[in-house]
Specification:
Elements: H1 54-64, H2 71-84, H3 86-105, H4 110-114, H5 120-132, H6 139-160, H7 170-182, H8 195-204, H9 212-225, H10 227-246, H11 250-255, H12 260-268, H13 276-293, H14 303-328
Helix pairs in contact: 1-2, 1-3, 2-3, 2-9, 3-5, 3-6, 5-6, 5-7, 6-7, 8-9, 8-10, 9-10, 10-12, 10-13, 12-13, 12-14, 13-14
Length: 332
């Protein structure tokens, strides 16, 4: 998810890899691949090519939930969880760490690990499990297992999904559905009718948070990372809330339940240079698909967003293919 927005991380050259001085015999150790312990302070022999900065990788994982790569944005997301739902922060961190360690143990690409691409699904499934299950001694191992499995699914999906079926939050959706088939979430409470609070909640619900402060902190983080994308996320949340009101679902509107999928769809198609109508179409598709996923026995989570993005990618691919075929036709 968000791989197109991520810049490749380049490791600094290691002093250990410098060539020996001319005229001096080459030591036997130079034939081995040296490991720069300065770049990898948390290296252990049990892990292959670890990330140079685990804290940054984890924070990038939080921001990748929003399809952004920015540790400050990730820190704002982490603060949003800590300040508004402290009982969920442990699950979020544990899920992210499990995803990162699994990717590292299995030797996945170092740049992708550093970018947080194997953490963000772990963040979401950790939050979900912590939210629906009461505390017990089995909860941490369950989150670790789910976070690690999300990393494996993400890797396999990235290998086989191609450019049309991008992973996005699909691993979280699959694992979340499995969790919700076993445990039913508690119903949401009544909230006051406040458009600004609903706007913030629509963004906060991306992380399953229903407090306006959470949404505000996440919006601040997005503006730090990418003001243009943040603007579109807010627009998406507003459109989602408006659609809920038009559909005579006021509580869903005030809780932001129609805002988060629209906000995510807006983030996915809000790159600089993208035509605004494309972003609006992605928002509309996510909102049109949301009632269909309500027919399922479990909440749809972010499935409408994922399905909308897939449809957009497939339509774009077919359009380019048709255009390419027509350009190769010879005139009569």
């Amino acid at each position: 998810m968000g791989a197109a927005l991520c810049r490749d991380w380049r490791a600094k050259p290691s002093l250990n890899t410098a060539l020996p001085d001319r005229g001096k015999p080459r030591p036997k150790e130079a034939h081995r691949s040296p490991i720069n312990l300065t770049d990898c302070p948390m290296y252990t022999k049990n892990f292959v090519n670890p990330c140079p900065d685990w804290a940054t990788a984890l924070l990038n994982g939080f921001s990748q939930v929003l399809l952004l790569r920015n540790p400050l944005c990730g820190l704002c997301c982490l603060l949003a969880i800590l300040l508004t739902a402290p009982n969920l922060v442990g699950g979020a961190l544990l899920g992210a760490l499990a995803g990162l360690l699994t990717a590292q143990a299995r030797g996945y690409d170092r740049a992708d690990r550093q970018a947080g691409l194997y953490c963000y699904n772990g963040v979401l499934i950790g939050i979900l499990i912590s939210a629906v299950l009461p505390w017990s001694v089995i909860l941490p191992p369950l989150i670790i297992a789910a976070g690690g499995l999300s990393s494996i699914i993400t890797h396999q999906w990235r290998k086989r999904g191609g450019k049309l079926l991008v992973a996005y939050t699909a691993p979280f959706v699959l694992l979340g559905w499995g969790t919700l088939l076993v445990v039913s979430p508690s119903p949401s409470g009544f909230v006051e009718a406040d458009p600004l609070y609903a706007l913030a909640r629509g963004v906060g619900q991306i992380f399953l948070l229903d407090q306006p402060l959470a949404g505000l902190l996440i919006i601040v983080g997005m503006f730090i990372a990418n003001p243009y994308a943040a603007m579109w996320a807010v627009i998406g949340s507003a459109i989602g809330g408006g659609v809920a009101l038009l559909a005579d679902q006021p509580q869903a509107a005030w809780l932001g339940l129609y805002g988060f999928n629209a906000a995510l769809a807006a983030l996915a198609f809000s790159r600089r240079g993208e035509k605004p109508w494309v972003t609006l179409l992605a928002i509309a598709l996510a909102l049109l698909l949301q009632p269909l996923f309500k027919l399922m026995p479990v909440p749809g989570l972010t499935a409408p967003f994922v399905a909308a993005c897939w449809l957009m990618h497939v339509a774009d691919h077919l359009g380019h293919r048709t255009q390419k075929d027509s350009s190769h036709r010879l005139p009569n």
